[in-house]
Design goal:
Layout: E1 21-29, E2 32-44, H1 47-53, E3 55-64, H2 65-78, H3 111-125, E4 135-138, H4 145-157, H5 171-177, H6 179-182, E5 190-195, E6 201-206, H7 214-218, E7 222-226, E8 230-234, E9 246-249, H8 254-273, H9 280-291, H10 306-323, H11 334-344, E10 351-354, E11 357-358, E12 373-378, E13 381-389
Antiparallel strand pairs: 1-2, 2-3, 3-13, 4-8, 4-9, 5-6, 5-7, 7-11, 8-10, 9-12, 12-13
Helix pairs in contact: 8-9, 8-10
Amino acid sequence: MREQPLKIENLQSSQESKEKKKKTLEMKIGDNTYMIETESYDFEYPKNIQQETGIIGYERTKINSASLYNIIYDISLKKGIDLKEKGINSITDIKMHTKNGEKRVVPSEITPLIIEICYDILSQLSNKQYPTNTVNHMLSAYTSDDAKKIHKQDFKADKFFLQKIFDIDLLEKSQKRNAQAFNFHNSNIKLDVFDKKTSQFKERIEFHEIKKYSNELQNDKVLVNTNDGLNNFSGDFWLGQIDLMSFGFSMDDNLFKEYISKAFNYYVKKQEENPSLMYGKILEHLIAIFTFNKKRFTIPGENISDDDKELLENMRNYIKDTYKDNEYIKIANDLDIQKFIDNRYRIRGTELEIPVLINNDEIPQLQWGHAKYAHFFNEKGFNFIEFKHAEHLPKKVQG
């Protein structure tokens, strides 16, 4: 039987630690130094959820909205811009990018400065990892402000960190509530369906069509994978949209690295079995994610783990086989592969997709809490999340 949905009611609100840890961030901006006070809370999920998801818990750091706003206001005022005169009186009034004046926006002269401040805060809180050394997804980046509100409600009410990415169990509920909100990260996703026993390819479908396979999924007859994946930006946020709820996936996290490794080997096998499926883009993106901002993809001899060596060898062989007859991209040795990756993907601001697998026995469906970092603004201020994970992917739990 297919694995059963987690019972996660009343988790995040009821089990967050009451013990507060205080820390001061020092930021130098121009000729001025600012001190920002933060409060941190630890949260740990119950053991059954840890075992089912590999998500142990998280540390949540909060910066009071008034403190952050006062710094932004002070810096803006020094540049001759009074935000209050422009109707921007709090953090929640700051909208970095909106459509045709739907909301008040920050003056263009101040936007880069606010982005710089928030990037600096995230960098300090993540030990210089997020967002520059992660691949980052911005929730609701392509939707209207009304849809963003619905996503924010879901974020609070549905225990979002444990929600699966491309969660088919929420499909009907999401469509009924708001079709536009449902489309926030599902609209362009294509799914490939396979017979689970024979591995025979059945068909490629739109995401919403997966409902016709409900019984077969429930009875463990089919497995599904995306033909593309969750869109991310490497080392940056799309258009600098620092004000959106965002998640950063890190290859320094063992659980996520194992996910990428297994996903790569899975798609290579499916490509060999069904060449017409054309998984080249997915495989290149997986290579790019694995090697992003790291020296894992280097000439032989560097001190790397045995698991990484095996995967890198598979990646080298894939690239050589794929491009050996391409007159424009000549791949002959490891140095050529290094150059290939550097030229194609190892730069900030590249869009990369993380594929998602559904009902796979060896590779669990990716969840938002499998990111290493997240951040969001709310009426109380700026929130930063650092997730804690198990060392390895969880084993599938049968119903």
